Amino acid sequence: MWDCNEMKLGKQFNSWVTMSVAGIIGLLLVEAATRALSPAAVPWRLEARLEDERNTLRLLRPDPTFHHIGDGIFHLNFPQRSDPHLPRIMVVGDSFAMGQGVGTSQRFGNLLQTNLGSRVAVDVLATSSYSPVIYRNIVRTALATNSYCAVTVFVDQTDPADDLVYQDDLLNGDAWQFNLAKMTDQNHAIDDAYGALLGQFDSWMNLRHLAIYNVLNPLSIVSAFKPADVHYHYICLSASRTSLIQTFAQEPAVAESLQMEALMMPHIDQIVAMCQDHKVPLFLAANPWEAMCSPDPKNGVRFRGPFPIENRLERLLNDRYGSLSGV
């Protein structure tokens, strides 16, 4: 009788071990398949994305006049008052005009300066993620210090979305200044939120180390904030920046696109008016992306084909300013 019970227990144990091993093997196969089909859910890739998001969402250094500033190439180097007889050209824009990711000698401003030589001074006043709400402050500051023979403003495809995001950061009652205290607190809140999200990967016992869990329970910075939080609206807009860029370029009639256009154009109107008041020719350019130039773009994932798509931003600038004197 005892031997019979032992045999039953042994069979049950063997069955349990077999089922456990099969379950583990099945989980490993599902995990491997998930990592192959959803590489973004792989833990180290997910951590890298969160780190990249944190560096994108948090400002370099909040600034009351220029929203955010940095060091080196990210610093606005306004020239001191110079010889009024030396012609100067002002180049305003974001990372495109700044030359982020490009060797110093190949940056647009340096190429222009090399081409023109010492007879003209080229002032590049551009920083990553700048937009027209900041461009106008740059133009106003520079024109108050020096005389220019030309102002060039490179409006990027990201600018309509950035103006929408930065609108909340303007100081109440002052359309030209940003709320430094709010933006500083915003940076701290973003750091804390991403710190908490990344902290989930510290323990090897956390389910975040499974890609299948990350697919079923996506990590999002938006989930780290509550709708009642003061920074919730900014976080939601920032997190949807890519889709806002696509919306503006390809869905002109939707509410978000109309809102972005309505916010951005008055800022450019002010730049035009300042240049006309100073009798300085203004050159406006709508930076084209590859999807707007190539029938087979390699980086066209943000846009729907067929390619190339229209450079809607260029058309808007041309329609609004193309016949104006001095533009």
Short description:
The protein is α/β, with parallel strands linked by helices and 327 residues long. Helices cover 49% and strands 8% of the residues. The strands form two sheets. It has a four-stranded parallel β-sheet with strand order 4-3-5-6, with helices on both faces. It has a two-stranded antiparallel sheet with strand order 1-2.
Structure, explained:
It contains twelve helices and six strands. The model has no long low-confidence stretch (mean pLDDT 90). A four-stranded parallel β-sheet has the order 4-3-5-6, sandwiched between helices. It has two domains: 1-37; 39-321, no CATH class. Strand 1 and strand 2 form a beta hairpin. It has 327 residues and is of the alpha/beta class. The relative contact order is 0.12. The N and C termini lie far apart (102 Å). The protein has helices at residues 2-37, 43-57, 95-98, 108-116, 132-143, 159-166, 180-199, 211-216, 232-239, 241-250, 255-277, 312-321; strands at 62-63, 67-68, 88-93, 121-126, 150-155, 282-286.
